[in-house]
Amino acid sequence: MPLLLGTSQSTCNILLPLCTNIRNQLKLYPMDQTPQASLKKIALNYGLALAFISIIISVILYVTGNHLENPWWASLLRLVVAVTITLYGLKAFKMGSGGYMSLGQALKTGMAIALISGLVGAIFQYLFMTVIEPDFVNQMMEVTREKMLEQNPNMTEEQMKFGLDMSRKFMQPGIMSAIIIVSSLFFGFIISLILGLILKQNRPEH
Questions:
Q1: What is the pLDDT at residue 111?
Q2: How many of the other CB atoms lie within 10 Å of CB of 75?
Q3: What are phi and psi of 15, to 5 degrees?
Q4: Contact (Cβ atoms closer than 8 angstroms) between residue 50 and residue 123
Q5: pLDDT at 206
Q6: pLDDT of amino acid 190
Q7: Mean pLDDT of successive 10-residue segments in the chain (206 residues)?
Q8: Residue 129 near residue 137 (C-beta atoms within 8 A)
Q9: What is the pLDDT of residue 94?
Q10: So what's the pLDDT on residue 8?
Q11: What is the torsional sign of CA 146, 151, 153, 154?
């Protein structure tokens, strides 16, 4: 009996830490829950990736002399990149959440990616207009003037001046940067909504 008692006591001493560890694990991950993906990490990684590729496109336009015209293919390329990056970001969130993602989570993730991308893009735009190409506004004014004359050759000088003054107000570095953030969030919402409706997978109710 003393031997049996000692053996049982030793066994309990060995199993006690193991049982405690299992109990703690069950507290961290209950049976009815699955791990939750890190929204901040996904937003930062994919938001920076989207901003980086968008900046590369802008640099290509600048080097090729197309930064004043903003050709249609550049806008289409930016849209394709935004959809692709957001898609991979939502898939990463869904995978990290055990295969589940609600529409609300998809919107939050996509908007967070768009916010990071918009902030970085706004900083780049501000530096571009103030440091890299400080004459950008004057160049845009000249392009705007030519387009206004093409669309309305009979425009008076007063009408021309009024139109150019209004355009110049919206082409200041601060305002342009703010517009980039707002447009990024707007398109981010639309893209996230569409992709979220496609990829959503709600957790089963118990």
A1: 97
A2: 11
A3: -80, -20
A4: no
A5: 59
A6: 97
A7: 41 44 42 64 96 95 86 93 97 91 94 97 94 88 83 80 83 92 96 96 78
A8: yes
A9: 92
A10: 42
A11: negative
Give the tokens for residue 7: 């053996």
Q: How far is CA 3 from CA 8, 11, 183, in A?
A: 9, 12, 77
| pLDDT given at position 10 | 45
| Angstrom distance (rounded) from CA 88 to CA 139 | 38
Residue 33 falls in which region: left (phi positive, over 0), alpha (psi -120 to 50) or beta: beta
Nearest Cα to Cα of residue 191 among 107, 96, 118:
107
Query: Is the distance from CB of 86 to CB of 46 less than 8 angstroms?
Result: yes
Give the pLDDT confidence score for residue 89 in this predicted structure. 96
Distance CA 145, CA 156 (A): 12
| Residues 122-157: b if buried by 16+ CB within 10 A, e if exposed | bebbbebbeeeeeebbeebeeebeeebeeeeeeeee
* pLDDT number for residue 30: 45
**Distant-in-sequence contacts of 89-95, Cβ < 8 A, 24+ apart:** 89/42, 89/43, 89/45, 89/46, 89/113, 90/192, 90/195, 90/196, 90/199, 91/199, 92/37, 92/42, 92/46, 93/37, 93/39, 93/42, 94/37, 94/199, 94/201, 95/37
Q: Which residue has the tokens 């908007």?
A: 111
Which residues are CB-contacts of 125 (< 8 A; sequence separation ≥ 6)?
173, 176, 177, 180
Which residue is it, tokens 């959440």? Answer: 97
